[in-house]
Amino acid sequence: MSRTTPRLYAGEQLRTLRRTAGLNQAAMAAQLGISVSYLSQLESGDRPLTPAVTAALQRRHPGALRAIESAAPALRRSALAAALADPVLPPAPSPDAIARLAEERPEIADRIVALHGAMRAAEERLQMVEESMTSGISGAGARMPWEAVRDWFHVAGNYVDPLDRAAEALAERLGPDEAGPIERLAAHGIEIVAVADEAAPMRALDRQRGTLALNGALPPESRRFLIAHQLVAIEFADTIRDIVEHATVTSIEARNLLRIGLANYAAGALTMPYGRFRTTARQMRHDIDRLCRRFGVSFEQACHRLSTLQRPGAEGIPFYFCRVDMAGNITKRHSATRLQFARFGGACPLWIVHEAVAIPDRIVVQHAETPDGVRYVSMAKGLVKPSGSFTRSPRRYAVTLGCEAEHAADFVYADVTDRTAPPTPIGISCRLCPRDDCDQRAFPPADRDIAVDPDLRGTVPYRVV
Questions:
Q1: Residue 50: what are its φ and ψ, rounded to 5°?
Q2: CA-CA distances (angstroms) from residue 344 to 202, 249, 300?
Q3: DSSP H/E element including 213
Q4: Helix or strand holding residue 376 (H, E)
Q5: For residue 5, what pLDDT is reported?
Q6: Of the chain's two ends, which shows fewer C-beta atoms within 10 Å, N or C?
Q7: CA–CA separation, 241 vs 222, rounded Å?
C-alpha cells in the first residue's frame, strides 16, 4: 500500500492475522507499537490502517500485508456495499454504481464506510446511556459485574478463537464419548463422584481430595457439560488467565465471572467442536432437536453454540440468541445480527419468546421486523429444568434463536412462516422503541414527548408526539 493510497479498513484480515499467529491483542499491539484499545478499533473496522501501522506490518508480517494490499479493492467494495445497504439509509445504488465509486473515488468510499461505522457505534453508546438513565441505574453501578462480562463477550463477537481452536483439537484427541474427558480428568488426579442429595450444588470441586462431585439429579447433557467445564478449566488455565489479564473488566467479581464464562465457552466448544458442529448444523438446516441428538447436548446448549460460530473465514449463519425467564428478564443474550437486546429490563412484549415461556416444550416461530426495517425469522421454545424434588420448584424459562430473513432458506423453522404476509412489528424495549402506534406499549419512548387528553382514551392514556 503506497503512502498516497487512501487508507484501508481491513479489520477482519488483521484479526485473522493475529489469531493465526497465535497472538493475543496485547502481544499484537506491542508488535505494531500501538495501544490495545487502538488495535481493537482497527480490528472492529472503526479505524483504517494508517501509514505507521502499515510500516509495522511490513516489518513484522510482510506476507500478510501483501495479501491485504492485493485484496484492497475487493475489501473496499464489500465494506462500502455493506454500509450503503443499511436499512436506515435510503435505497442503495446499484452494485455497478457502488463498484465504480469504490474504484474511482476510493477516498470518498473510505469516508462513507468510516461515517457508517461511527454512526452505528454512536447508536449503540446512546442506547446504553438511555437504558442506564431510564432504568434508574447510573454511576458506579451502571455496569454490574455480570453486565460487564456480558458486554465483554459482546465486544468479542461471542467468539474466543484461542479457546475454540484448542477445544476443537482436544475434542479430536478425546473422541465423542464421555469416557474420554473422564479419563483425561483422572490423569489430572480428579475423580468424578455422584451426590444423591438433590439440594447439593450442581458441581463441587474438592482440590484436596481430588474429587469432582456432580449432583445425581442432573440430566446426562448437563453432566457431560460440567465434566467438560472442569476439564477445560484445567487444560486451558494459562489461556484463560491470559485472556482475563488483558480483558477490560476490572472488578474481582467480574474477572471471576469472566473465568467461569470462558470455561463455559470452552466446554461448549469441546462438546460441539467448531468444524464438525458447523458442518452438521448446515446439513440439518439448523434443526436444534437433531443437533441435540447428534452431539448429546441440551436444547439451550445447541442454540447458544450456534450463536458463537463466528470464526473468521468459516463463519456460520449470524444468529441472535437469548434466554428469558418467567418475568421477562433477559438472563443470557448475544447477537451476531443487527438486532441488539435491551441491557436492562424486559424485551418487547410482541416478541414470540414471551409466548414460548408460558407454554413449555413447544416451538413457536415468528417473522418480525424491527424499527430499522430489518426482518428476522426466529424460533423460541419454553424449557423446564427439573429440580429433582417436589419440594423445590423447577426452573422455567425460554430460549430463542433467530437470523435475518435473508438466511431463511438455511433455517428449517422459517419453512412454517408466510414471509409474504406483513411481519410482526417488534422493538428492542418500550423505552427505546420509536413506534407510536403499538397497542402493547408499557412505557413511552425515553426520547419522545407525550400528549395527554383527558377527554380521549386510546389503548394507552397518552399519545406519543
A1: -90, 165
A2: 28, 19, 22
A3: strand 211-215
A4: strand 375-385
A5: 46
A6: C
A7: 25
Contact present, 304 and 268 (Cβ < 8 Å) = yes
Average of per-residue pLDDT values in the chain: 84
Nearest to 29 by CA among 19, 18, 45, 44: 18
Nearest one of 8, 7, 32 to 18, comparing CA atoms: 32
Cβ 273 vs Cβ 296: under 8 Å:
no
Rounded-to-10 torsion of CA 270, 404, 358, 282: -40
- How far apart are the C-alpha atoms of 321 and 334, rounded to whole Å? 5
Minimum mean pLDDT range among 58-72, 203-217, 253-267 = 58-72
Q: Where do runs of H (alpha helix) occur along 188-320?
A: 220-235, 237-245, 252-271, 274-283, 288-295, 299-306
Going by C-beta distance under 8 Å and a sequence separation of 6 or more, which residues neighbour residue 239?
162, 163, 166
Sheet holding 191-195, edge to edge: 191-195, 211-215, 203-206
Per the structure block, which three cell numbers stand in for 144?
454490574
Distance of alpha carbon 121 from alpha carbon 83, whole angstroms: 13
* Weakest-pLDDT range from 216-220, 238-242, 399-403: 216-220
Q: Which residue has the higher pLDDT, 5 or 107?
A: 107
Query: Dmax over Cα atoms in the chain, in whole Å?
Result: 77
| Residue 160 DSSP symbol | -
> Residue 229: CB partners within 8 Å, gap ≥ 6?
203, 263, 264, 266, 267
Q: Is 306 helix (H, G, I), strand (E, B) or coil?
A: helix
Contact 450, 465 (CB under 8 A): yes
Written as nine digits, the cell of 204 is: 463441587
Inter-axis angle of helices 237-245 and 220-235, to 10 degrees? 70
- If one compares 333 and 136, the residue with the highest pLDDT of the two is 333
Sign of torsion, CA 322 325 326 327? negative
Interval 276-328: pLDDT, tens: 999 999 999 999 999 999 999 999 999 999 999 988 788 899 999 999 988 88
CA distances (Å), origin 151, targets 37, 245, 318, 347: 15, 16, 18, 17
pLDDT confidence bin for 7, thresholds 50/70/90: low
Say if pTM beats, i.e. exceeds, 0.85.
Answer: no
pLDDT at 108: 87
For the chain, the residue count is 465
Listed residue (222, 219, 189) closest to 206, CA to CA: 189
CA dist., res. 342 & res. 436, Å (int): 19
